[in-house]
C-alpha cells in the first residue's frame, strides 16, 4: 500500500472551499502562519504515532509527513472536527452528530492499526502472493485399546 501526504485538497473532499476559508479566517491570529497547514501537520504526526506502535510497520522507511493511503479516511474524520473546533471550541454538527461519530470511528481505526489489526502497510514477503502455500500435515492418531482384549 502506498503512503501519501495529506493536503488541503484532500480536506476539500469533506468541506466546501468557503467553509474552509471561513474556519481559516476565524482561527487565524495576527501574525500567525496558516492554521490549516499546522493542523494538517499535527494530525499527521498524531496518526503516525499510533501507526508506529504496530511492529509490522517499518516507520524508518516512511517519508516524514506521510500516512498510509488506507488511513486517509481517518485523517479526514479527525481533521475536519479539529479545524471546526479551533475557533469556537465546538464542532458544527446540527443534530446529526455525523462528524463526531466519524471521528470516533477514525480513532478506533487508529487503535486497530496500532494493535496490527488492520493492514496499513505492504504484506510481508513471507505471506505475499506467490509465496509457497504450506501443505497440510496429517498424522494418524493411535487409539488406546479399551476393549480389554
Task: Give a structural overview.
It is a single chain. With 149 residues, this protein is an all-alpha fold. It has helices at residues 8-11, 17-27, 35-51, 72-88, 98-114, and strands spanning 3-4, 67-68. The protein has a two-stranded antiparallel sheet with strand order 1-2.
Largest sheet, spatial ordering of strands:
1-2
- List the total number of helices: 5
Major sheet attributes:
2 strands, antiparallel
Count of DSSP E strands? 2
Cα-based radius of gyration, to the nearest Å: 23 Å
Q: Supply the number of structural domains.
A: 1
Helix/strand-derived class? mainly alpha
Can you write the helix and strand succession as a string?
Answer: EHHHEHH
Concise overview:
By secondary structure, the protein is an all-alpha fold. It has helices at residues 8-11, 17-27, 35-51, 72-88, 98-114, and strands spanning 3-4, 67-68.
Itemize the secondary structure elements and their pairings.
Blueprint: E1 3-4, H1 8-11, H2 17-27, H3 35-51, E2 67-68, H4 72-88, H5 98-114
Antiparallel strand pairs: 1-2
Helix pairs in contact: 2-4, 3-4, 4-5
Features:
mainly alpha; 149 residues; two-stranded antiparallel sheet; 3% strand; single chain
Amino acid at each position: 500500500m502506498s503512503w501519501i501526504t495529506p493536503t488541503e485538497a484532500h480536506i476539500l473532499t469533506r468541506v466546501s472551499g468557503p467553509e474552509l476559508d471561513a474556519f481559516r479566517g476565524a482561527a487565524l491570529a495576527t501574525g500567525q502562519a496558516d492554521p490549516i497547514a499546522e493542523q494538517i501537520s499535527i494530525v499527521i504526526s498524531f496518526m503516525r504515532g499510533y501507526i508506529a506502535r504496530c511492529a509490522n510497520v517499518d516507520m524508518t522507511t516512511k517519508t516524514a509527513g506521510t500516512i498510509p493511503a488506507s488511513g486517509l479516511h481517518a485523517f479526514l474524520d479527525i481533521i475536519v472536527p479539529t479545524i471546526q473546533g479551533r475557533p469556537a471550541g465546538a464542532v458544527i454538527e446540527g443534530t446529526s452528530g455525523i462528524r463526531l461519530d466519524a471521528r470516533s470511528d477514525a480513532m478506533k481505526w487508529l487503535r486497530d492499526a496500532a494493535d496490527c489489526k488492520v493492514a496499513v502497510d505492504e504484506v510481508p514477503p513471507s505471506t505475499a502472493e506467490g509465496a509457497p502455500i504450506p501443505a497440510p500435515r496429517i498424522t494418524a492418531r493411535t487409539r488406546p485399546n479399551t476393549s480389554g482384549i
